[in-house]
Amino acid sequence: MLRRTLIAACLTLIALPAGAQEAPRLSVVASFSILADLVRNVGGDRIAVTSLVAPGGDAHVYAPSPQDARKLADASLIVINGLKLEGWIDRLVKSSGTKARIAVATRGITPLQSDPHAWQSVANAKLYVANIRDDLIAADPSGEAAYEAQASAYLARLDTLEAQVRAAIAAIPPERRKLVTTHDAFGYFGAAYGLAFIAPLGVSTDSEASAKDVARIIRQIKAQKIPAVFLENVTDPRLTSQIARESGAKVGGALYSDGLSPPDGPAGTYIDMVQYNIRELQAALSP
After folding, report:
1. Longest Cα pair distance anywhere in the chain, in angstroms?
2. Which residue pairs from 156-160 have beta carbons closer than 8 angstroms and sit at least 24 positions apart in sequence?
3. What is the pLDDT of residues 224-243, one digit of tens each?
4. What structural domains does the chain harbor?
5. Is the pTM of this model over 0.85?
6. Between the CA of residue 210 and those of 216, 223, 233, what are the distances in Å?
7. pLDDT surpasses 50 at 34
């Protein structure tokens, strides 16, 4: 019985016309995890996407490996952010010898000076999606209908997300819409939604803040009446407790800015990341 079943299955496969066999998926490489998620939502099952910088990694300082060059050599489409985020990408592309199309996801976005984090504005993320859709169609014209439909569905989800962000910010009193953050990556978010992200005085983002740095931050918070502070490089709980106690500001957790969390974390997708960040901001800035 089993033998007859296997023979029948084999004959069915042989009888299938050539066009009915599953086509190979388009190989796409994205420079970092946020872009990879956007590409995945537009490309769906027609593509296989790989992210060079893994979730939790930093695209600013990433050091490409020989394996990365091989990934580019095998790719049909390479999607990058641009705006000088990936300072290493041109050298990697050259060394790989790739013939892939290079797609710049920020095409058409008006840049803020020295801030490449354009995806922090959901309106900009929609432009990313439109650019990705067009570049996928250029690389795989037979998939145009699928890419159009998937992009349209995802853009509708981003419309909902932007409404959520605006509602969350509107619920924060205007005088409390300001905070200190050590990572200067939220210029587009602030410009789009009316929040002031203030750089702390005297703290290097490359090292742990000292007691002297913290005292300076406390004076700044008091002088500018800042209700919340997100200090990603202040890991000593005694220092964060000192900031909260002496300044009166709430100390928030880390905001996701340059990459997603692992899939089982709180920011495993772009939409999850934005929703997580607005929850953290609303919790810290609300009275």
Report:
1. 83
2. 157/271, 158/122, 158/125, 158/126, 158/129, 158/271
3. 999 998 876 565 667 777 88
4. 22-166 (3.40.50.1980), 172-255 (3.40.50.1980)
5. yes
6. 10, 20, 10
7. yes
